[in-house]
Amino acid sequence: MSIQNYKKLDELEIEFPAPLMDGDLDILVLGSKNGGGKTSVLECCALLMVAGAVGPMKRQRFPDSESMLDLYGPLVRAGSAKAVIAGDFERDGKKCTVRLSINSEGFGEPEVSGESLFKNDASQLRWDGLEQALSSILALSGEPLIMPPLLHFNSYRKVQESNPELGMMAEDYHRKPASRSALLLARRTTITPVSAFKLEILRSLMGQASLFEGLDNAESASVLATLNELIKRYCGGRIEKLRPLPDNRVAIRIKPSGGGDSFSFDGLSSGQKEIVATLFLIWRNTAERPAVVLIDEPELHLNVEWHGDFVEQLRRLAPRNQYILATHSEEFFRSVDEPRRMVLVPK
Fold first, then answer.
1. CB-based burial of residue 313 (10 Å sphere; 0-12 exposed, 13-18 middle, 19+ buried)?
2. Helix (H) or strand (E) holding 294
3. Residues with Cβ within 8 Å of residue 60, at least 6 apart in sequence
4. What pLDDT shows up at residue 69?
5. Cα(137)–Cα(45) distance, rounded to whole angstroms?
6. Cβ–Cβ < 8 Å for 264, 251
7. How far apart, in Å, are the Cα atoms of 164 and each of 159, 170, 180, 201, 222?
């Protein structure tokens, strides 16, 4: 991948290593000092994959762009007219190249040579779907971008401390974009919709109980089993019950392994919620077909002991994905072999 004039990066070429042997975890841990460009590399990877999936984005911008301040200008390095990113992709023996330019007015029309490797997998993004994708990639939203074969977790991700409504489970929040009003509210007040992670829990509990048509009982049981493995490992309990609330919402409850009263999922620490949600969403959305998974600061809110364990859980739960992690953590660096580490050093 090549990057020119994106944010603080004037020029960078980076080649992501392939697995050394069959069965090895395809992972790259990327490090640098603050301001070294780690986050920019992840953003550029994600932008190229979205560009390859959705096709022409010429001059598209957020609705009410004046109220969104200046979204695109800050993406271009100061003193430059435009940023240009390009990347070569290979998947299932097929190859393609995607090139994308950005200026203060928005994105240029993507150039895709070879066969697009993404359009058959990614949902066809409407205008507001593109809005959601860019919001997640550029950290305007705390929700991860779940658009197989791409998963992107920005460093502002957060499992929202709010309770889902029963009616929400009928909609596919993994694919369907957030409403415009909710997105603008997120930009201005940092409040975002109920996390996709919680909606997945709600669907699975309802499916296991066979209370709703269209929710597979066996699949729901499998989902809850994997989720509860993570809950037990990091939180010392399991999800068993929902508590109804007066406003048509439900609270997700955790039963401690050692006995005692249940407590709200929102009562967990931020680190517990983030490690469980991130690992679960990766497993849930890549179990059937591998994806590219980009995670900015996987150590977010985690104690040091969990840094290395995080990589081990990726190996256990979803070993076929390609992972690119941007981190400040020495523990994350030590959790992978030296050929899987890369440090960005500014000129």
1. buried
2. strand 292-296
3. 106, 107, 127, 130
4. 47
5. 10
6. yes
7. 12, 12, 19, 10, 22
Residue 315's pLDDT is 93
At 139, list the tokens. Answer: 């950290």
Q: How is residue 242 written in tokens?
A: 């929902």
More confident residue, 45 or 117: 45
Q: How many domains does the chain have?
A: 1
Write down the pTM of the prediction.
0.86
Cα–Cα distance measured from residue 253 to residue 267, given in angstroms and rounded to the nearest whole number: 9
Please write the tens of the pLDDT for every residue from 68-93.
446 778 899 999 999 999 999 988 78
For residues 313 and 346, the answer to whether their CB atoms sit within 8 Å is: no
Q: Which residues form the domain of 294?
A: 2-343
Residue 214 has pLDDT above 80, yes or no: no
| Model pLDDT for residues 151-183, shown as the tens digit of each residue | 999 998 877 777 776 666 554 433 333 333 333
Q: Which of 319, 266, 314, 323 is nearest to 293 (CA)?
A: 323
The pLDDT value recorded for residue 30 is: 94
CATH code for position 52: 3.40.50.300
Q: How confident is the model at residue 210 (pLDDT cuts 50, 70, 90)?
A: low
Q: Closest by alpha carbon to 245, among 225, 266, 219? A: 266
